[in-house]
Structures are given as C-alpha cells and as structure tokens.
Amino acid sequence: MLRFSLAVMALVAATALASAQDASSGIKRTPLQKIDFPDNYTTVTGLAEIAPGVSAGRHTHPGIETGYVLEGETVLSIDGQPDITMKAGDSYTIPAGVPHDAKAVGEKPVKVLGIYVIERGKPLASPAK
C-alpha cells in the first residue's frame, strides 16, 4: 500500500510540474489514469488542451497513440501522411515511433482524450528531429 501511495504522490508531483510548464506554452495536460498493462507496457490515459494557434510540437511515443477529439478543431500532422483536419467527434491512431504534431485551429481550444500504450520504463514522449 505504501509503494502504491508513493507512486501516486510521484505521479501527482510530476503532473503538477508538467502542467505548470505547459500552461505558459498554451498546452495543458491532465493525466487521468496509468496502469501497467499489457505485459511489458504501460497504458496512459490523459486529456490535452491546446490553445488556439498553438502546436504541441513534433514528437514521438514509444508505443501506439489513439485519441478522440472532445472539443474544438485541430490539424494533425503525421509523418508520411497528408495533414488531417479533425473536429469534435473524430478519432485517430498514430503508430509507435512516428513523428507527429497537432495544432489547434479556430477560435477556441482543442481538447483531446489520448490513450498511449507505451513500452514500460520509457518516457511517454520525446521530441522529434
């Protein structure tokens, strides 16, 4: 129980730091859930809010990303594919390791529910070249 409590406290502290750093850039990330499943992977569910005109920045994940646009509109750029304009109700999948970016377009922020199934022990995201 103590190990679980310490893990939760560490996640909350990391989340607070990440949210503070992101807020100044026009991006707010809210982790919702993190579980070690399936074997050798961690599944992370989170909410991302991107201010109008702001880009998330090109990055990759060490596993698959799938998501659902809750509000607003975004242009999703995935290397090797044409840009996709997405609005509330649209969903997407990004293969592991593929560089991508998302930019909020329109008058209001875009809110996206993201689910990441990543290799256990690796960072959730890394900047892409």
From TrEMBL:
Taking the record's annotation, the residue ranges forming a coiled coil are none
Q: CDD domains recorded for this chain? A: cupin_BLL4011-like
Q: Where is the Cupin type-2 domain?
A: 47-116
Gene3D superfamilies xref list: Jelly Rolls (2.60.120.10)
* Membrane spanning stretches: none
Q: Which InterPro entries match?
A: Cupin_2, RmlC-like_jellyroll, RmlC_Cupin_sf
Signal sequence segment: 1-20
Record Pfam families: Cupin_2
Q: Which UniProt keywords apply?
A: Signal
Give the domain of life. Bacteria
According to UniProt, the name of this protein is Cupin domain-containing protein
Q: Which organism is it from?
A: Mesorhizobium australicum
